[in-house]
């Protein structure tokens, strides 16, 4: 999230094959690549280090890490979503370390204790059904003194496009329709995030809050991407073709109205807030 997959149990962030490809094509360059570059820079990867990317999605963080640790390093990406991993494996290898892709749960990482120098998790922790267990697993696979770097979204109110879409979903489909979007912000409270990470045995915890400007061609492009390249696609699949098209148009109209002031002549631009946490094992 990249994070971007849930652990076993309550699977709240799953994509099929087509959606995973659209996610890589549209959401990675617009959103997750920006945060991936920030996370990898902040954690300070060094040549030769061993890095694990948990909830790797289509691999944007893992590939960025591979370039930093070089050919003497080692990078692995793990995700529970087979479709996301299929896209990750299909992409050309970049410079640096080769990346090993693993299908598995963040709640039971299939690696020995002390296997990695750095564990990264971008925009994925909030979706795990047992966040404490996932963090304990990250701590287990790190060497003593190893580093954790993770990113989670800030409050939904500070992410206006998501806020507008969540409101539109609730108005047109009922109060539970936006649960998936609102879950993206489940760890928006830095105090809660710090408590969870400290409870898993990490120390020297630092949290910074950053805002980036995200750009789409238009509000329509943003909504279309959300309805085809995220789990929201399943909402439209429950409707016949005609009703689904009208629903998409109604959602787009609502979001466009809410974000009218953020749509200059060159497209849609809106702020997105995230917390970046660094800690030591």
Can you summarize this structure?
With 281 residues, the protein is an alpha/beta fold.
Describe what this molecule looks like in 3D.
There is one protein chain. Helix content is 43%, strand content 22%. The chain has 281 residues and is α/β, with parallel strands linked by helices. The protein has a seven-stranded mixed β-sheet.
| Beta-strand proportion | 15-25%
The coarse overall form would be globular
Which structural class should the secondary elements be placed in?
alpha/beta
Largest sheet: 7 strands, mixed
Mean pLDDT: 89
Q: Roughly how much helix do the residues carry, as a percent range?
A: 40-55%
What name goes with the CATH superfamily of one domain? Vaccinia Virus protein VP39
Question: Any idea what the CATH architecture of one domain is?
Answer: 3-Layer(aba) Sandwich
Poorly predicted segments:
1-13
**CATH class wording of one domain:** Alpha Beta
């Amino acid at each position: 999230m990249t994070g971007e997959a849930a652990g076993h149990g309550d699977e709240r962030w799953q994509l099929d094959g087509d959606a995973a490809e659209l996610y890589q094509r549209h959401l990675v360059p617009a959103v997750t690549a920006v945060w991936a570059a920030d996370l990898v820079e902040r954690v300070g990867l060094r040549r030769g280090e061993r890095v694990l990317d948990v909830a790797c999605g289509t691999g944007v963080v893992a590939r960025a890490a591979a370039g930093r640790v070089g050919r003497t390093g080692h990078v692995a990406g793990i995700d529970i979503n087979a479709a996301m991993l299929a896209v990750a494996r299909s992409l050309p290898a970049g410079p640096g370390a080769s990346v090993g892709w693993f299908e598995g749960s963040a709640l039971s990482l299939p690696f020995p204790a002390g296997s990695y120098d750095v564990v990264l998790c971008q925009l994925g922790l909030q979706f795990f059904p047992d966040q404490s267990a996932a963090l304990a697993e990250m701590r287990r696979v790190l060497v003593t003194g190893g580093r954790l770097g993770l990113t989670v979204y800030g409050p939904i109110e500070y992410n206006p496009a998501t806020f507008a879409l969540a409101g539109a979903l609730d108005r047109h489909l009922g109060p539970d329709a936006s649960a998936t979007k609102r879950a993206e912000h489940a760890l928006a409270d830095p105090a809660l995030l710090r408590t969870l990470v400290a409870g898993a045995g990490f120390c020297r915890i630092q949290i910074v809050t950053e805002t980036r400007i995200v750009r789409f061609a238009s509000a329509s492009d943003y909504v279309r991407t959300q309805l085809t390249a995220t789990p929201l696609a399943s909402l439209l699949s429950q409707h016949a073709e005609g009703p689904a098209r009208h629903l998409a148009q109604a959602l787009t109209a609502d979001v466009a109205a809410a974000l009218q002031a953020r749509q200059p002549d060159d497209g849609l631009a809106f702020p997105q807030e995230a917390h970046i946490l660094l800690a030591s094992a």
